């Protein structure tokens, strides 16, 4: 145990030479690539942070753009709905006016048809009354004129009353 606590001078020198040699080899062979790898890693992390910041800003811009587009779409939708309501109201008003005109036209046509039918019925009734009157008059005259002298009196009376004289 004592030998470990008191090292020999030769061992210290050889350990120091070995340590310095390993240190130089490490500096020449490994230290540069390790520092280069650390530097590249630092740059990639910085680039990733920059990309993340750009992405965050782009997302904020896109979010604002989406809000603007959404507002525009709502305004356009409201305009289209308003126009559709106005068009529907106008079409309903036009349909009502057209229906009213057709109803008035149909009513006028019906009144005309009723008037024509009434005139035809009155004319038919007059013709029937006239025919019936002629039949009655003919029967009455036949009865009265069955005698020859009554016929002669009637003919003379009609000749005297006629405007040809």
Give an account of the 3D structure.
By secondary structure, the protein is mainly α. The protein has one domain. It is 93% helix and 0% strand. The protein has helices spanning 2-5, 9-144, 148-161. The longest helix is centred in the middle third of the chain and has 136 residues, at 9-144. 0% of the residues are buried. The model has no long low-confidence stretch (mean pLDDT 86).
Quick overview of this protein structure:
This protein has 165 residues and is an all-alpha fold.
Supply the key terms.
rod-shaped, mainly alpha, single chain, 165 residues
Order of helices and strands: HHH
What's the total number of strands?
0
Major sheet summary line:
none
pLDDT averaged over residues: 86
Helix content: over 70%
Number of helices: 3
Task: Tell me the layout of helices and strands.
Blueprint: H1 2-5, H2 9-144, H3 148-161
């Amino acid at each position: 145990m004592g030998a470990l606590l008191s090292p020999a001078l030769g061992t210290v020198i050889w350990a120091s030479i070995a340590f310095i040699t390993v240190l130089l080899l490490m500096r020449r062979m490994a230290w540069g690539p390790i520092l280069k790898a650390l530097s590249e890693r630092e740059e990639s992390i910085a680039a990733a942070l920059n990309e993340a910041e750009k992405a965050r800003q782009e997302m904020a811009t896109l979010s604002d753009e989406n809000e603007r587009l959404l507002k525009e779409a709502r305004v356009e939708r409201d305009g289209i709905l308003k126009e559709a309501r106005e068009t529907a109201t106008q079409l309903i008003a036009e349909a009502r006016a057209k229906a009213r005109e057709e109803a008035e036209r149909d009513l006028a046509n019906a009144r005309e048809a009723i008037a024509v039918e009434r005139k035809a019925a009155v004319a038919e009734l007059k013709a029937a009354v006239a025919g019936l009157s002629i039949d009655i008059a003919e029967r009455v005259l036949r009865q009265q004129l069955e005698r020859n002298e009554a016929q002669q009196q009637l003919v003379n009376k009609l000749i005297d009353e006629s405007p040809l004289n």
